[in-house]
Model the fold of this input.
Amino acid sequence: MKIYPLLLCLLIQLMSCQKSSHRGTVPPSLGTSDSLKNYLNITINHDIRVAIGEMASADENISEDFKMINRNDTVYIIRQFLESDHLDGKHLKVLSKHKTGITVKYNVGFHFMGDEKKSIYLPLNYVVTRKIGPDTVLPSFENIYKDPGFQKFIGLNEQKIYQQAYSTFISYYENIPENELKSCCPDDFENYTNIKKTDPNHLQSLDWEKHLLTVPDYKSMIIDIKDLTLSKNYVLVFNKEDEKP
Done:
């Protein structure tokens, strides 16, 4: 009869070991809620989690600044306000017990700053790629701008950039009633009037930023996370253009 208590003890021990084993498959914690309070926290799956920060919030709550859309193995990170923070220059933490390989791609081009209600980019772009570690700072745009390949791209396409910047500038301001523009924004009206007089064949006499309100910027960032343990890829997409996935 003494065999039953012994079997019961063995059964309890076995169940305890199984629970410990299951707990061991959980990926490392992203940290305390206080330490990551101003981070954008993203759960890709049970094995991989990501934190990006620290982020400045337009609404005093990071979770309100961004919307996440999961589609298959891709997570789209969508800003909810034009004032919401960007990802470049932020600390990236990829938490996983699996071995990972990470690549970040910047789709860089030129941003027309005249419209305060939406993001407008010229239809010209160049991709800069960097390999990074799982606990590192995402390259800032200032760093990406200095990329030799991008600088060469600017040199080869300078005339095209001027033409597109000029066309975007004129298209935007010619849709604003003249009296309204003169009343609300006299400096913009004066600049627009002078730009209209510019010979389209001599646009390079203008300054991109001062006259055409156009600056170099990145349109989107793609963070490619490869789970080397399972040979599987996951992608985070951050798009600054007003396009929905």
In short: Residues 16-30 have pLDDT under 50 and may be disordered. The first strand starts at residue 40 and ends at 43. Residues 38 and 54 are 5 Å apart (CA to CA). The two ends are 68 Å apart (CA to CA).
